[in-house]
Amino acid sequence: MLLTVTTTHRPATDLGYLLVKHPDRVHRFDVPTGTAYVLYPEATDERCTAALLLDVDPQRLRAQQDAFALGQFVNDRPYAASSLLAGALAKVFRSALRGASKDRPELVGAPLPLQIRVPVLRGTAELAARLFEPLGWSVTATPIPLEPALGGDSHYVDLELNGELTLSAALNHLYVLLPVLDDAKHYWVAPDEIDKLLRSGAGWLAAHPEKVLIARRYLVHKRALTTTALQMLEGEEADEPPAEEDAELPVARKQSLAELRREAVLAALAEAGASRVLDLGCGGGALLTALLKDKRYTEIVGADVSARALEIAARKLRLDRMPERQRARLQLWQSALTYRDDRLRGYDAAVLMEVIEHVDPPRLPALESSVFGHARPGTVVVTTPNAEYNVNYPGLTGRRHSDHRFEWSRAEFEAWARRVAGAYGYEVSLRPVGDIDEATGSPTQLALFTASRTEVTA
């Protein structure tokens, strides 16, 4: 079982520093299913290729339930790329997957010209293109023919990927998508597989057009695990970077950025002493669920311009089966935040959690007028992505979500928040949300607006 990574970056031998494997040596690793080797068929300043060779011992593999009597000994597992190769990749290139290099730190976040080759991979050329092309790869998947006497093509392809990506992004793509193409895993799949998927898919999976198929196949068609993973992806919007744990070892689940964001919003509402709260742009209802669990919130309104989003929220909240006393605390309204809505007036607090970046910039003044001027809650909590932090997400190009109309730096968000506060009679404080990077700040930024006077000047 073979995988090669080639670069023409100058000097190309920097690949050895990024993989933490010296080109002049053959590196050997024991893995649960056999032995993995890393070697360099070529290593010059102009071109360098690293090969991961996995020598699988078929007797270490458990036979599949539907295999024939000798299936444990006669199978394609030693030759066709699969979850076995993905597992070896995670162990052998652990630092590179995390995007860590003490010798070449300046290259970690730099896109490199890369060519990936997997000579034998179970899957179709069409599916390979659907999975890799949205990630920026040029895909060549050549079907491997059967013996001439049989004619036709086999179920295997010779896969070649070409593109300019960070090495970390490339390896994480392979770690997730090799078992997806093979549509099988060769170890017990438990709930911790969701964490592996989210870590390696951070920055690209949430926006991938085939994310449902990827999650389903990666989690071996286990419905409960797939549903949970997709719900977490929907909340994260591809904005959580990979954790530093070994991708192949079960680890305690790290809080997602979506959860940290909700906790920060709830803390701001509690600090304000709010009891009647608007969730503006409530989407599928993640914050509404948290608000309902806290009895201090006596009246909760979820508002969204999308009727479909409100239907999803009602279904997730099980509105039709909610106890009457709890149901009396919650209302769902269809409302566009760029238009004045008298129903939104008079509330203690309003939350715009990851909302403003979905509004076209020319429409922001209308939102400001309707929320801060017309509805005028006592407290407004706004969260939005910090664009500066995006460099910490391997494989992320452009914005974090395809529907984002903009993403602001910390200075841009602060300037907007202070201008709005001054125009509409609020005081504002800004806070980071999530892990803080010394150079780029936190992944999410939060502004807490508190009404300071009754008159409106804009």
TrEMBL record:
It is an enzyme of class 2 (transferase). NCBIfam families: bacter_Hen1. This is Small RNA 2'-O-methyltransferase. SUPFAM superfamilies: S-adenosyl-L-methionine-dependent methyltransferases. Keywords: Magnesium, Metal-binding, Methyltransferase, RNA-binding, RNA-mediated gene silencing, S-adenosyl-L-methionine, Transferase. InterPro entries: 3'-RNA_MeTfrase_Hen1_bac (IPR024026), Hen1 (IPR026610), Hen1_N (IPR024740), Hen1_N_sf (IPR038546), SAM-dependent_MTases_sf (IPR029063). It catalyses: small RNA 3'-end nucleotide + S-adenosyl-L-methionine = small RNA 3'-end 2'-O-methylnucleotide + S-adenosyl-L-homocysteine + H(+). Residues 1-233 form the Hen1 N-terminal domain. It comes from Paractinoplanes pyxinae. Coiled coil: none annotated. The lineage of its organism: Bacteria, Bacillati, Actinomycetota, Actinomycetes, Micromonosporales. Belongs to the methyltransferase superfamily. HEN1 family. Its EC number is 2.1.1.386. Its cofactor is Mg(2+). It holds the Pfam family Hen1_L.
